[in-house]
């Protein structure tokens, strides 16, 4: 039943994605974060107090998320085992973001190919945190490829990893960790203190999944007909070329597979952030690299599901 729930949820994500008007736990987690953050900012004034308050916020949001997910599942299973199974499938389905990420990346790609530069900049702004108003087509393409590569970890591999470790409640708690980092885990002055704990604990949560992504995306590159040797080599070589200890693993692997260069300087909240380059500039990056990256993401996602299913079966057998 457990593996069936995983596979059914994965197929639902593949077919449906995230319809914008359907209820989604991440929106509820985001609303909780905003509520707790407002309370922390009212009470905490100094940087030290904001760091402590940010830690309390992390504990509250992650703890409440896990508790509610666990309680809902127990209640649903008590009412009816099949109803509990359906609730579990729904939870897992909402944790996976593969189809949603692919669709949004394709929207930017279509705007680059057939729309206006302004349209592609606007659609890119929906999926990245950097300033997009002055970006040119190669920079827009690079941002999309980076986002798809990085979110292969956040949106698929890590949720499945925590699903293996602790079922849907722990995977939902991971999603709260990741949402906290997405909302407050910035080095910008407004968030530097209150988001410090969220940013660092997101790094901890993604430590193993990011390194698994190096292997899974390299295998995906081989299956997609790209250069697996360069994917492995550059993914490992450039693993430290990012302020995050995790992001360069998937980005470097994809950069190596495609023979393009990612990373480099970007603007966030009006401030220039200097970042090292990732990969070798063997080919000029083009919109064609977006569907190539999406295909590698889907292949890596399927490989991750298969890997964790095999581990689950091995542990169950033991």
From TrEMBL:
Keyword set includes Transferase: no
Pathway per the UniProt entry: Cofactor biosynthesis; adenosylcobalamin biosynthesis
Annotated membrane topology: Multi-pass membrane protein
Entry's localization field: Cell membrane
Keyword Transcription listed: no
Gene Ontology terms: cellular component: plasma membrane
Transmembrane segment boundaries: 56-76, 156-177, 296-315
One BP term from GO: cobalamin biosynthetic process
Keywords of the record: Cell membrane, Cobalamin biosynthesis, Membrane, Transmembrane, Transmembrane helix
Pfam family, one: CobD_Cbib
GO terms assigned for molecular function: ABC-type vitamin B12 transporter activity; threonine-phosphate decarboxylase activity
Family under the similarity heading: Belongs to the CobD/CbiB family.
Function: Converts cobyric acid to cobinamide by the addition of aminopropanol on the F carboxylic group.
The protein, known as: Cobalamin biosynthesis protein CobD
GN (gene name): cobD
């Amino acid at each position: 039943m457990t593996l069936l729930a995983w596979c059914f949820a994965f197929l639902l994500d593949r077919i449906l994605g995230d319809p914008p008007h359907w209820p989604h736990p991440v929106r509820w987690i985001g609303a909780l974060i905003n509520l707790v953050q407002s309370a922390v900012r009212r009470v905490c004034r100094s940087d030290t107090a904001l760091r402590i308050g940010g830690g309390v916020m992390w504990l509250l949001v992650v703890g409440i998320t896990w508790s509610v997910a666990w309680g809902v599942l127990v209640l649903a299973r008590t009412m009816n085992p099949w109803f509990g199974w359906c609730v579990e499938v729904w939870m897992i389905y909402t944790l996976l973001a593969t189809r949603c990420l692919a669709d949004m990346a394709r929207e930017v790609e279509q705007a680059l190919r057939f729309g206006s530069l302004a349209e592609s900049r606007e659609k890119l702004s929906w999926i990245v945190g950097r300033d997009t108003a002055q970006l040119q087509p190669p920079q827009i393409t690079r941002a999309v490829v980076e986002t798809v590569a990085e979110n292969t970890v956040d949106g698929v591999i890590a949720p499945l990893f925590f699903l293996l470790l602790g079922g849907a409640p722990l995977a939902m708690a991971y999603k709260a960790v990741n949402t906290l980092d997405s909302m407050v885990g910035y080095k910008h002055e407004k968030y530097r203190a209150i988001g410090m704990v969220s940013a660092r604990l997101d790094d901890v949560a993604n430590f193993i999944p990011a390194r698994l992504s190096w292997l899974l995306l390299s295998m995906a590159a081989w299956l997609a007909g790209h250069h697996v040797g360069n994917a492995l080599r550059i993914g490992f070589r450039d693993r430290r070329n990012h302020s995050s200890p995790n992001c360069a693993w998937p980005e470097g692997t994809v950069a190596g597979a495609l023979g393009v260069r990612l990373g480099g300087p970007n603007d966030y909240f009006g401030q220039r952030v200097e970042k090292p380059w990732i990969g070798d500039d063997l080919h000029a990056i083009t919109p064609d690299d977006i569907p190539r990256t999406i295909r590698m993401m889907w292949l890596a996602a399927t490989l991750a599901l298969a890997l964790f299913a095999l581990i689950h079966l091995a542990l169950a057998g033991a």
